[in-house]
């Protein structure tokens, strides 16, 4: 009975405690992440196309299955990233040993989230859509 309870409790841990094989992406020490860090991932088959076409890239990490761009925390506010993209609050991603494959040419570790969002929408054939709370189109 006790063993089954321990098994049940360990299965209900939150992903942030590391029990489910997650790793937190963080910029190199010389790049300050003053706005916090989230990550946006796309399947690896789309990674090089996005990297080549974005006007500015911050830190980009890759593992065999996914490529991840660091964006400022809260870059998911009032919008939904289209599938198959994955938004990772806090930069917590599955631990598939992601490695840094692109360093920005400036002092910011971030990829601008709006161009990234628009490129992901274009890649997936999804119309961009976001809302602004409290703002309507009626006169």
Q: How would you describe this protein?
A:
- By secondary structure, the protein is of the alpha+beta class.
- It is 23% helix and 20% strand.
- It contains 3 helices and 7 strands, in the order αββαβββββα.
- The chain is globular and about 35 Å long.
Relevant terms:
single chain; disordered N terminus; 139 residues; alpha+beta; 7 strands; five-stranded antiparallel beta sheet
Could you give a short account of the major beta sheet? 5 strands, antiparallel
Radius of gyration, rounded? 17 Å
- Span between termini: 65 Å
If helices are DSSP runs of H or I spanning 4 or more residues, what is the number of helices?
3
Specify the helix fraction band: 10-25%
Overall shape: globular
Q: Report the order of strands and helices.
A: HEEHEEEEEH
Average pLDDT confidence is 83
Strand percent estimate: 15-25%
Low-confidence segments? 1-15
Walk me through the topology.
Elements: H1 2-11, E1 22-24, E2 38-43, H2 44-53, E3 60-62, E4 66-71, E5 86-88, E6 92-94, E7 99-102, H3 113-124
Antiparallel strand pairs: 1-6, 2-4, 2-5, 3-4, 3-7
What would a concise description of this structure say?
Helices cover 23% and strands 20% of the residues. It has 139 residues and is an alpha+beta fold.
């Amino acid at each position: 009975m006790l063993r089954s309870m321990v098994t049940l409790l360990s299965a209900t841990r939150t992903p942030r405690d590391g029990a489910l094989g997650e790793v937190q992406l963080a910029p190199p020490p010389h790049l300050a992440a003053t706005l916090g860090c989230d990550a946006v991932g796309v399947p690896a088959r789309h990674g090089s196309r996005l990297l080549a076409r974005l006007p500015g890239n911050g830190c980009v990490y890759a593992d065999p299955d996914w490529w991840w761009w660091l964006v400022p925390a809260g870059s998911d506010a009032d919008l939904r990233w289209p599938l198959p993209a994955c938004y990772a609050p806090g930069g917590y991603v599955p631990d598939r040993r992601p490695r840094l494959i692109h360093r920005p040419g400036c002092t910011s570790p971030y990829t601008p989230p709006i161009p990234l969002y628009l490129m992901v929408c274009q890649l997936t054939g999804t119309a961009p859509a976001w809302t602004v709370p409290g703002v309507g189109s009626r006169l």
